Amino acid sequence: MPKLTIDGIEVEVAPGTSVLQACEQIGKEVPRFCYHERLSVPANCRMCLVEIERSPKPVASCAMPCADGMVVKTDSELVHKARKGVMEFLLINHPLDCPICDQGGECDLQDQAVAYGFDRGRYTEAKRAVKDKNLGPLIKTFMTRCIHCTRCIRFMDEIAGVSALGAVNRGEHTEITGYLEQGIASEMSGNLVDVCPVGALTSKPYAFTARPWELRRTETIDVMDAVGSNIRVDTRGPEVMRVLPRLHEDVNEEWIADKTRYAHDGLKRQRLDRPYVRDGEGKLRPASWLEAFAAIRTRLEGVAGDCIAAVAGDLADVESVLALKDLTDRLGSPHRDCRQDGARFDAGRRAGYIFNSGIAGIEQADVILLIGTNPRWEAPIVNARIRKRYLQGGLKKVAAIGPKVDLTYPVEHLGAGGDTLAALAEGRHPFADLLRTAERPMVIVGMGAFARADGLAVQAALHRLADACGLVREGWNGFNVLHTAAGRVGALDAGFLPGAGGRDLAGILEGCASGAIEVVYLLGADEIPAERLGKAFVIYQGHHGDRGAHRADVILPGAAYTEKNATYVNTEGRVQQTRLAMFPLGEAREDWKILRALSAELGHVLPYDSLSQLRQRMAQANPVFAEIDRLVPAAWGPFGSAGAVSRDAFVSPVTDYYLTDPISRASATMARCSETFIKPAAVTAAAE
């Protein structure tokens, strides 16, 4: 291992470590623009120059590997002079528009100009101007500010996997541009705002709305998909101004998907801020909490528990789900389900419904099989991790059974339906041999494999495949389920499933049609067909006036994920907690508090009065809820049930990435994205 001296400090580093990385290890800060820890090294900004003994000139530290006996100086007079010269060149054409630039206060160029800039310029030539580019509804461009660090190009090519940006022309005429002036059709494009070190690429929805020093920052997690990306929510007063990524190496690294970043404007549109009760004329009218509770109590009088059902939605937190489960138990109802998409799988064994290897475990896999999933739309962060593994080398093959889509890395399409899966499970398919001989085989199963009538048989076939191909072995479990709903795994862990003799979602809908189910409680359930609820009395508790609220007879306004301290469990079984960034709107309240107050009104008081008491109850119900931000290994065992697997093709449950939940459907930004990227692609596909 090379040993070198940096500013008089001797340090030993791993082979291949760059001088810049070695400086960072001992706390020596080296300025940079083009270098980024997760991107390739172009060494084109020259801001990271250092002095190396016996070198005739300053050296770009980001591209210089450490060598044994090297002596480096990062704070010498030569280094300072060189960096000031680089900064002077960068500012020759850069516009002096900091007062109106959205990057102001968070700009790398601004910060480093303080240390290495000069108070006047020596160049009298006119500054060059560059035409702004149209990169779609999310990215605002001001290309005159661009310093050609090429971070954006490298991010799109390497992380997002969409070659949407490039450089044209040479010398001072160089421009960064999109191909054919089209928007960037990537679910990860918003990260360009973070990687750009100047104000050339900024957030279009956030433009000219706030300054960073005006905002209150809250560290929380995302619920737009089941990944549970760690985020920071910036608020000003009662409004979310922006959402930024927060570093978590095992979940989302430092990236977030576009829906996570930009759907927050849906939090202020179509919101439920007061209770509503449907009157005798069939119209919803505003009511007080007492009136709403009284209407529910009156309707439930004399109704047997077997005639009551509950459905938990995709964004429901564990606290509210467990409170609703306890309430239905006290009412004597066994009819409940948390699988709005109608997915059928055996939830009796946790290993059968979580991402067992962990998202970070993707980087260890050498063969990956995707079944019934489109991870690019269902979980862009997971898809980016698979691409990262592909670029690292050592990934022999990625194959897929199900929809044929562009996943930004080479995929061998084995087939579309259950017949291919059955052949694999029985060892009749050649790909089974590749899985069997792999050191770290991995299977990723999406909800498209379970949301069908033979879901339990598919799950049993997957268990046979796992056993036959050795997916589970000492120190490795390569059987992974990729969920699409943030609240799904937490609800399964809490046991929000049909009790003894209880109905699942399909049974509940059938009961509503036949009249066997008289009362249905929807906890943020907006993805079920409301027309199939028949004449049942519907209680809707949620935060948006979406599909469930339109059908409701009583509406109880709840809190969105930014408005409560709540627990969610991501697809890999990691328990994480949101933090209250702002208070619920109007008369809305946290969901578990609504259920606690309703239980008292109904005469079935729930045994907790505070959040801490409720979380103690959660830990009693399932000890996994006490393991915050940890992966708890699940015991392997049989799951699913015997049966024939249909030959029908597996279909991804996500048909429009930008409009999958009540928040994103209320978002004007997401609507523009859908109009720009999804609908034109659908028209093109139809024409072909």
TrEMBL record:
<dbReference type="GO" id="GO:0051537">
    <property type="term" value="F:2 iron, 2 sulfur cluster binding"/>
</dbReference>
<keyword id="KW-0004">4Fe-4S</keyword>
<keyword id="KW-0479">Metal-binding</keyword>
<comment type="function">
    <text>NDH-1 shuttles electrons from NADH, via FMN and iron-sulfur (Fe-S) centers, to quinones in the respiratory chain. Couples the redox reaction to proton translocation (for every two electrons transferred, four hydrogen ions are translocated across the cytoplasmic membrane), and thus conserves the redox energy in a proton gradient.</text>
</comment>
<comment type="similarity">
    <text>Belongs to the complex I 75 kDa subunit family.</text>
</comment>
<dbReference type="GO" id="GO:0051539">
    <property type="term" value="F:4 iron, 4 sulfur cluster binding"/>
</dbReference>
<feature type="domain" description="2Fe-2S ferredoxin-type">
    <location>
        <begin position="2"/>
        <end position="78"/>
    </location>
</feature>
<keyword id="KW-1278">Translocase</keyword>
<dbReference type="Pfam" id="PF00384">
    <property type="entry name" value="Molybdopterin"/>
</dbReference>
<dbReference type="InterPro" id="IPR006656">
    <property type="entry name" value="Mopterin_OxRdtase"/>
</dbReference>
<dbReference type="GO" id="GO:0008137">
    <property type="term" value="F:NADH dehydrogenase (ubiquinone) activity"/>
</dbReference>
<dbReference type="Pfam" id="PF22117">
    <property type="entry name" value="Fer4_Nqo3"/>
</dbReference>
<protein>
    <recommendedName>
        <fullName>NADH-quinone oxidoreductase</fullName>
        <ecNumber>7.1.1.-</ecNumber>
    </recommendedName>
</protein>
<dbReference type="InterPro" id="IPR006963">
    <property type="entry name" value="Mopterin_OxRdtase_4Fe-4S_dom"/>
</dbReference>
<dbReference type="Pfam" id="PF22151">
    <property type="entry name" value="Fer4_NDSU1"/>
</dbReference>
<keyword id="KW-0560">Oxidoreductase</keyword>
<dbReference type="Pfam" id="PF09326">
    <property type="entry name" value="NADH_dhqG_C"/>
</dbReference>
<dbReference type="InterPro" id="IPR050123">
    <property type="entry name" value="Prok_molybdopt-oxidoreductase"/>
</dbReference>
<keyword id="KW-0411">Iron-sulfur</keyword>
<dbReference type="GO" id="GO:0048038">
    <property type="term" value="F:quinone binding"/>
</dbReference>
<dbReference type="Pfam" id="PF13510">
    <property type="entry name" value="Fer2_4"/>
</dbReference>
<dbReference type="Pfam" id="PF10588">
    <property type="entry name" value="NADH-G_4Fe-4S_3"/>
</dbReference>
<dbReference type="GO" id="GO:0042773">
    <property type="term" value="P:ATP synthesis coupled electron transport"/>
</dbReference>
<keyword id="KW-0874">Quinone</keyword>
<feature type="domain" description="4Fe-4S His(Cys)3-ligated-type">
    <location>
        <begin position="78"/>
        <end position="117"/>
    </location>
</feature>
<dbReference type="InterPro" id="IPR054351">
    <property type="entry name" value="NADH_UbQ_OxRdtase_ferredoxin"/>
</dbReference>
<dbReference type="InterPro" id="IPR036010">
    <property type="entry name" value="2Fe-2S_ferredoxin-like_sf"/>
</dbReference>
<keyword id="KW-0520">NAD</keyword>
<dbReference type="InterPro" id="IPR015405">
    <property type="entry name" value="NDUFS1-like_C"/>
</dbReference>
<dbReference type="InterPro" id="IPR019574">
    <property type="entry name" value="NADH_UbQ_OxRdtase_Gsu_4Fe4S-bd"/>
</dbReference>
<keyword id="KW-0001">2Fe-2S</keyword>
<dbReference type="GO" id="GO:0046872">
    <property type="term" value="F:metal ion binding"/>
</dbReference>
<dbReference type="InterPro" id="IPR010228">
    <property type="entry name" value="NADH_UbQ_OxRdtase_Gsu"/>
</dbReference>
<dbReference type="InterPro" id="IPR000283">
    <property type="entry name" value="NADH_UbQ_OxRdtase_75kDa_su_CS"/>
</dbReference>
<dbReference type="GO" id="GO:0016651">
    <property type="term" value="F:oxidoreductase activity, acting on NAD(P)H"/>
</dbReference>
<feature type="domain" description="4Fe-4S Mo/W bis-MGD-type">
    <location>
        <begin position="215"/>
        <end position="271"/>
    </location>
</feature>
<dbReference type="GO" id="GO:0016020">
    <property type="term" value="C:membrane"/>
</dbReference>
<keyword id="KW-0408">Iron</keyword>
<dbReference type="InterPro" id="IPR001041">
    <property type="entry name" value="2Fe-2S_ferredoxin-type"/>
</dbReference>
